[in-house]
Amino acid sequence: MATVKQSFSFDDYRHSGKQEFYSFLKTNINHRAKNIRHLAVSSVAPSKERTALAENIACQLAREGNRVLFISTDLTYKSELASKGGLTHLLAQLLGRPVSKGQILDYGLLDLFFLVYLQQRTGTLELLTRNNNKYTATFRQGIVCRLETPNYKMSDIDANLKMKKASWKELARTYNQELQHLFQEFKRVSFVSFAFYQSMVLGLKKVPKLLGDTYPFIHEQLEGHNYILRCLHLNSFKREHNFFIMNRGTHALNLAKGKSYQSVSSLLELLSRHYDRIVVDTPTLCQGQDGALLCGLSEGALIVIDHHNVSRFRINRVVHKLKDADVNIVGTVLG
Known about the structure:
With about 325 residues, the protein is an alpha/beta fold. It has helices at about 10-15, 20-30, 50-65, 85-95, 105, 110-120, 155-165, 170-190, 205-210, 225-235, 260-270, 290-295, 310-325, and strands spanning about 5-10, 40-45, 70, 100-105, 125-130, 135-140, 145-150, 190-200, 235-240, 245, 275-280, 300-305, 330-335. The protein has 13 helices and 13 strands.
């Protein structure tokens, strides 16, 4: 349920100065939402102040020593850089290049697992060592169902799953422990090449549900990644120390279409492992669904309201829209 924690006014900085206002706002956000790493800044109506506000909050967070990514979905924001990449370009690169076969050095081991996860692929990933030893990972809709080494197979756990010899919680805990243990072994091996075979995965339909659709390696860091870091570098630029900016890009966003929402959700999850804080300047809430959906994907939302030009009815309609999306509103800024 949406709750408004505190309101701020742009009139405040006319007396204290803009930087003091942004610093004050950042301090209040940290105090009231100190565990929020992903913040959305949106507005009830089109507003240039919203983008400036979001960018300055991100800049203030970076000055605290956080590694911060600011994502702007405003097409006019730094439009001269739009052709060089952005959020929609990054999505196209990560989702539009299906994992098939190649050299490990071109990707990185973690990249392969993340890419299969982001693309929600079903099939088997085979990894070969210099001695032609084969390690395999089986995925269903991007979720790792089984890992096998030359010396170990998960057949015992599979049997328990089919026979329901244990409770779902016990099976899920055992499955996660086994996957984590085996993946640590994978990381110690020097792989040379890989091949992904798309196929039906029989007998493992219950595993994604069993794991609660959580990626087993969610705590793995992006250190050592090649392909994903390369894509991030191409689609963002460093404005100053610890502060990175990513434009929207020239492709259509349209989160309500197809698998776009799930793809952006997975991408933000991936980015959150590379940056300490992410601030997203979302589209306005009164035009289309993208603004509300991006707020829903965030851990908290700050809403800019031009109370001089927006009716109370319109504001209430937007608030109810956010309530339906279960958005956590950490505050409002009155324009």
